[in-house]
Amino acid sequence: MVADNIRRRKWQQNPDAVKNNILETATAIFAKDGFSGARMDDIARQTETSKRMVYYYFTDKKQLYITVLEAAYAKVRAAENELNLEGYPAGEALIRLIGFTFDYHRNHPDFVRLIQIENIHQARHLATSDIISAVNLSAIAALERLIKRGSEAGEFHSNNDALELHWLITSSCVFNITNRASFQQLYGANLFTDDGQDRLKKLIISSIMQTVLA
Amino acid sequence: MVADNIRRRKWQQNPDAVKNNILETATAIFAKDGFSGARMDDIARQTETSKRMVYYYFTDKKQLYITVLEAAYAKVRAAENELNLEGYPAGEALIRLIGFTFDYHRNHPDFVRLIQIENIHQARHLATSDIISAVNLSAIAALERLIKRGSEAGEFHSNNDALELHWLITSSCVFNITNRASFQQLYGANLFTDDGQDRLKKLIISSIMQTVLA
Amino acid sequence: MVADNIRRRKWQQNPDAVKNNILETATAIFAKDGFSGARMDDIARQTETSKRMVYYYFTDKKQLYITVLEAAYAKVRAAENELNLEGYPAGEALIRLIGFTFDYHRNHPDFVRLIQIENIHQARHLATSDIISAVNLSAIAALERLIKRGSEAGEFHSNNDALELHWLITSSCVFNITNRASFQQLYGANLFTDDGQDRLKKLIISSIMQTVLA
Amino acid sequence: MVADNIRRRKWQQNPDAVKNNILETATAIFAKDGFSGARMDDIARQTETSKRMVYYYFTDKKQLYITVLEAAYAKVRAAENELNLEGYPAGEALIRLIGFTFDYHRNHPDFVRLIQIENIHQARHLATSDIISAVNLSAIAALERLIKRGSEAGEFHSNNDALELHWLITSSCVFNITNRASFQQLYGANLFTDDGQDRLKKLIISSIMQTVLA
DNA sequence: TATGAATGAGGCTTCATTCAT
DNA sequence: AATGAATGAAGCCTCATTCAT
User: Fold this and answer.
1) Do residues D98 and D208 make contact, with C-beta atoms less than 8 angstroms apart?
2) CA distance B174 to chain A (A)
């Protein structure tokens, strides 16, 4: 606002700042309006640069969208790495992982919405991104190690499947965000207050832990 | 050409058939491409009538979309009524309900996708539809009765909340459809074969039943 | 100019007139500016309809260009059919053919320019048009029959090749138009007055006839 | 990277090399895509320098194009000087000139294509170039001397006009290149094999010599 | 009720060029 | 002499919708 021109200058010759600024704006708008619904003009306008710059750095709408998607996934990985599941007994580690997953999705609704949008488009863009596969496979691998640890320690029963478990955990955590609007519309806001969310988190943890434990 | 004309004439006598035809086509296309992604031209072309008729009967894109949504919800209600949960002991009834919910979503992916799309648009259109609220509230009421029965019979513990339970059941069943594309893309198709789906269904049932049972 | 609205109405519901109007305008502009140089906006503006109509009937710039090209070729065929070479002794028929070719190109500079443009683009669009091949092969066939007649009558020597002859005739007639601008620029306008053109026509006829005659 | 820097430095010491490099690249691209079709970005990218240098040395697209055109013409002049027609009897000299013209155009398709492009743009840029006129007038002068020699020697008849003859020779030689793409597309590649080209060259020589000789 | 023709507004993208260093 | 970043103007095309019959 203050001295728009000066701010412009600041961007100039600072490609990464410009790119990040565009990416953040685009993330919000794609998450809000979907791929087709998003307008390149809107994105550009909410950016601190020009429409031309969006194309300069991201080529076209589709590339921009893919980059947004990749950046969102990269952020999850970063967060997951900080969890340090290896430092806890398997049971506790799993509880932490479920809690983290629940919270992460809750705190990053844009990320969840992007995946949802991607699914509506048959995950066509995911297909072309190596980065994204990598992120996710590493998450499964971590869970596999965790399960193995739990089984060997006698904490977990021996039939747990990492992918299925991941699916089960993710399903509720994702749904919690993706269908919040329709749920709230139909049944009121009770489940989405802080209290309600705590109850749901405990519900998920309890139902999953009982399934996993020996 | 002649055959074509005859078919055309058939429509002319039968407005409801025309409307249904348009509605079915629109359902498929909205489910496939989302609201913004769907093209009125595509819908009209895949219809057995003309574009003008689509507007004649449904006014504009938004109205058409809302009608599609309402029609989808109406179909669920019809299906649920056939379940007759009252005829079984509470535990068995709940297992049947979860199984039904899983299967129903699986068999009606377009319905699920429409709700997803609706959520991406903040359930704005749902808000305007009375039909839809009604359908859902009756589902919760049925579940409440079931839980009460289970508690009274000593089968279920006494702290189960119908809405939370509905949320938990629905979450996995919906996610199973909505995020199938991205899951498959990232982790392969194993979970989505008939076998894989059976395993997931059992997983949900088991995790939920252990949470509910006394 | 007079009652623009009324004229608009006249177009309405008269697709062929609209299409022809667009095609003529587009022919002139593509001939003048080349494919890349031509502006869809210019074409639309010089049309008696709107830009939207151009796309409605011709899909995109490329399709419009191809249609223009095909229409131009179709016109040549129509003209050639009126020549009735069969009605003259071979020698005279050939002289008429050369003269016609010279005059036709001279009178249809847009046609020639279109072919030139097409050549600059490596005749890529010609490749996709069946219509155009057909037109041209029939021209060669006619020349072949003419040569055969001339040989059998002893008028022509027996080694004439239709395709080579066609090439030789066409080369000068085409060049006369395509390189007129640069020639005139460099050597003045003398060759392109009516007199000059008559001299050139005679020169071509004489040089070719001497080559063909026995 | 290191090697790249070294190469860059080499240019820095050698402006003419940079200019030539740009000019050659630009020649090829203008010849391939026409004026409007050529992209400054493409030219710059295929260059061994940067886009900025293109503008630094050649101001803008139009100037670059004109310079390309002039450079192409300059090269023809150099070639023609090596012909030394004066050393042969007029008839033989003319045959050599036709052959040379045919071959030269065939060996310099880019040059021919540039002129073609120039003609499509009404030779507007040629108009502004003194260099180019000079080149061409000297060609006519040489032919004039040749004809005069032939007439005086009784080899040629006395009505030959240098400009018309130049036009006749050039027409086929130019057309051979400019319309090769469309010809090949429509009638196959036979005329453009080495054999085919020899036959065409002989055809031109024969048809022209018969016209010129006494 | 039905239809092919028509359309304004707005979408995405690309161009030649210039700026700050 | 050299460069990567930046840009306004203009290009092509598509959308939901309406009109005349």
Assistant:
1) yes
2) 8
**CA–CA dist C186, D137 (Å, integer):** 7
Residue A199: closest CA among chain B residues belongs to which residue? B164
The reply to whether A184 and A99 lie within a common domain is: yes
Question: Mean pLDDT throughout B86-113?
Answer: 93
The CATH number assigned to the domain holding A41 equals: 1.10.10.60
C1' (F12) to CA (C53) span, angstroms? 14
CB proximity D29–strand E (7 Å threshold): no
Do D69 and D40 have their domain in common? no
Residue D22 burial (CB < 10 Å; 0-12/13-18/19+)?
buried
Q: How far is residue C13 CA from its own chain's centroid?
A: 31
CB atoms within 10 A of CB C40: 16
The single residue listed with the structure tokens 């004809």 is D147
Q: B28 and B117: one domain?
A: no
Strand E at less than 7 A from CB of B18: yes
pLDDT at D203: 97
Poorest-confidence range of A6-10, C81-85, D34-38? A6-10
What is the rounded distance in angstroms from the CA atom of residue B77 to the CA atom of residue B135? 6
pLDDT value, residue D3: 41
CA distance A154 to D117: 82
Q: Does C157 have pLDDT greater than 90?
A: yes
* Run of H or E residues at A202: helix A194-212
H or E stretch covering C157: none
In one-letter notation, the amino acid at residue C68 is V
Q: Which of C51, C160, C147, C44 is nearest to C93 (CA)?
A: C147
Three-state DSSP class for A47?
coil
Strand partners, D213: D156
Whether pLDDT at B27 is above 90: yes
Buried b (16+ CB within 10 A) or exposed e, D51-60: eebbeebbee
CB contact under 8 A, D210 and C208: no
CATH at B186: 1.10.357.10
In this prediction the pTM is 0.86
pLDDT of residue B9: 46
- Residue keyed to tokens 């979309």: B65
Note down pLDDT in tens along chain A; length 214 residues: 333 333 343 455 678 888 999 999 999 999 999 999 999 999 999 998 889 999 999 999 999 999 999 999 888 878 877 888 899 999 999 999 999 999 999 999 999 999 999 999 888 888 888 778 877 788 899 899 999 999 999 999 999 999 999 999 999 999 999 999 888 888 889 999 999 999 999 999 999 999 999 7
- State the CB neighbour count (10 A cutoff) for residue D27: 23
Write down the pLDDT at residue C59. Answer: 93
Q: Which of D143, D4, D161 is nearest to D85 (CA)?
A: D143
Contact A117, A35 (CB under 8 A): yes
Lowest mean pLDDT among B109-118, B119-128, C119-128, D33-42: B119-128
Show the tokens assigned to D111: 């040059």
Same domain? For C69 and C112 the reply is: yes
C147 and C46, same structural domain? Answer: no
Structural domain boundaries enclosing C102: 65-212
Asked whether residue D51 falls in the same domain as residue D72, the answer is no
Considering only CB atoms, D136 lies closest to which of C35, C121, C186, namely C186
Does B50 share its domain with B69?
no
